[in-house]
Amino acid sequence: MIPVSGCVLTAAQMHDAEIASGISLQKLMDRAGCALAEAVWRFGSGRPALILCGPGNNGGDGYIAARLLAAWGVDVSIAASGFPKTELAVAARAAWDGLVGNLANAQSSPVLVDALFGTGLTRELPAEIAKPLHRLANAAEIVIAADLPSGVGTDDGRDYGAARADITLAFAAAKPAHLLQPAASLCGKVRIAHIGVECVANVSVLARPHLAQPGPTDHKYTRGMVIVVGGTMPGAAALSATAAARSGAGYVVGIGVTGDLPHAIVRRDHDELANTLDDPRVRAVVIGPGLGRSDRAREMVDLAIASPCPLVLDGDALAPNVVNDRPAPTILTPHAGEFTRMFGDGDGSKLDRTRAAADHCGATIIFKGADTVIASPGGRATLCPPASAWLSTAGTGDVLAGIAGAMLARGFAPHDAACAAVWLHSEAARLAGSGMIADDLLTQLPRCL
Ligand SMILES: NC(=O)C1=CN([C@@H]2O[C@H](COP(=O)(O)OP(=O)(O)OC[C@H]3O[C@@H](n4cnc5c(N)ncnc54)[C@H](OP(=O)(O)O)[C@@H]3O)[C@@H](O)[C@H]2O)[C@@H](O)CC1
Ligand SMILES: Nc1ncnc2c1ncn2[C@@H]1O[C@H](COP(=O)(O)OP(=O)(O)O)[C@@H](O)[C@H]1O
Ligand SMILES: [K+]
């Protein structure tokens, strides 16, 4: 059982991977059931457990876990929503020699195991299932979900009436619902149980980046020169510029960035932008935080886009069709409002929409929020485990843009730069703790390196 990591598979991809594994479904269910029993043993600490079993293989996992837990001496009972419908679940139920209660009138227990539905959920939970599920979950001390909390859309993270779990044990791989809201916040802590199925996908969970320390041959230019362009709200660009410096850039130039800045950041005027962009040592430009939307601001964005420099576009620089297959590395960092303004409402999940947008504009996109999605042209995407919700405060996005600039400047390819930036931002927020403000991220960033 490991923290959420690795590939992210849709329900259909998971099904294909199970088949491709060459391992019998019976064996896979035995492994899943065993992993579930171990989780209940570990997190339930031997307290009495009630296992809710649904009609499919998710229910099958529940019957197998119950049999093992009973053999290990746990006081375990089962309540089912009906008779199993799959061959494997029928066999798993037949191997359980205890009683099977009715979900509707099941008695609550300190440990509730939710094995009603997993990747096979196709629609809203009916009231006759949702009502007892919520009643029993509210009465339990701990809720452990098998694979997914029953009632979340596996691929889009929609809530179809799920009860919140404390622990979700995902089998074989994470699914989008473990990372996309609102489902992600219904999962509690997500753990992966590897059951021998090899999973390959171009969507993965954000991982800790490899950030090399400066070496003996490094100097300020090899570590990366970043330009941050300021505008009407000086604080925003100051946050970006300081974040770039604090996340390892060797040289940061603030163009038109006024206000409180570390002395290490070099200040230049707006009319020096064009000259500075011609400097071949420039490794990244960050433009948008606090820029404003004047004609002058638009001209500066156009200059930055036309330059050959790697670029982070944020805030006011984000507009529909602002970049189209720009040849140099480009990262866009929209929040939900900016994303919709740029790409429309679109169809599908946040993951689908971000991937479509990345293909459309030919740039890496960090679609921010409580379930940040990073996507690049060609389909590569990264889903980010929930970061501290204290990030929901003004200026934290400006900090992220600055970090992304520093990551491009250290030579990372755009997708890797975006991932490293989101990881550092999230880690800095974790260290900053409760009540943090954007400025606090700046002090924590060096610790995250
Ligand atoms: N990953 C792995 O390698 C392994 C995965 N395994 C496990 O298999 C699980 C997937 O199993 P699964 O495909 O049988 O689907 P599952 O979620 O049990 O439910 C399907 C049933 O629910 C029904 N139904 C659907 N929605 C409903 C609703 N709203 N309200 C009411 N009913 C609804 C649906 O009926 P239908 O839509 O056909 O009417 C069907 O009867 C997976 O999550 C994991 O736990 C392991 O066992 C082996 C290795
Ligand atoms: N509830 C939340 N949980 C986790 N992260 C969040 C949450 N709300 C916002 N964030 C993060 O905080 C940052 C906010 O960025 P943004 O909305 O651009 O703010 P600003 O423009 O004020 O800097 C983003 O990185 C976003 O992912
Ligand atoms: K479940």
Overview of the molecule:
The protein has helices at residues 11-20, 25-44, 57-71, 87-94, 127-139, 183-186, 234-246, 273-277, 295-306, 336-343, 350-361, 396-409, 414-432, 438-448; strands at 2-3, 49-53, 76-80, 100-102, 111-115, 142-146, 167-171, 189-193, 203-205, 225-229, 251-255, 266-268, 282-287, 311-313, 330-332, 364-367, 373-375, 381-383. With 449 residues, it is an alpha/beta fold. The protein folds into 2 domains: 2-199, 3-Layer(aba) Sandwich (Rossmann fold), CATH 3.40.50.10260; 225-448, 3-Layer(aba) Sandwich (UDP-N-acetylmuramoyl-L-alanine:D-glutamate ligase), CATH 3.40.1190. Adenosine-5'-diphosphate binds at residues 315, 335, 368-370, 372, 387, 389, 391-392, 394-398, 400, 425. Potassium ion binds next to strand 5 and strand 6.
Short overview:
With 449 residues, the chain is an alpha/beta fold. It is built from 14 helices and 18 strands. It has two domains: 198 residues, 3-Layer(aba) Sandwich (Rossmann fold), CATH 3.40.50; 224 residues, UDP-N-acetylmuramoyl-L-alanine:D-glutamate ligase (3-Layer(aba) Sandwich).
* Average pLDDT score: 97
Strand content: 15-25%
Characterize the largest beta sheet: strand count, sense, and whether it forms a barrel: 10 strands, mixed
- From the spread of the alpha carbons, the general shape counts as elongated
Q: Count of helical segments?
A: 14
The strand count comes to 18
Structural class: alpha/beta
Overall CATH class of the largest domain:
Alpha Beta
What would you give as the CATH superfamily of the largest domain?
Answer: Ribokinase
**Backbone CA Rg:** 25 Å
How many separate structural domains?
Answer: 2
Secondary-structure arrangement, i.e. CATH architecture of the largest domain: 3-Layer(aba) Sandwich
CATH topology label of the largest domain: UDP-N-acetylmuramoyl-L-alanine:D-glutamate ligase
EC number: 4.2.1.136, 5.1.99.6
Family: In the N-terminal section; belongs to the NnrE/AIBP family.
Protein name: Bifunctional NAD(P)H-hydrate repair enzyme
Keywords: ATP-binding, Isomerase, Lyase, Metal-binding, Multifunctional enzyme, NAD, NADP, Nucleotide-binding, Potassium
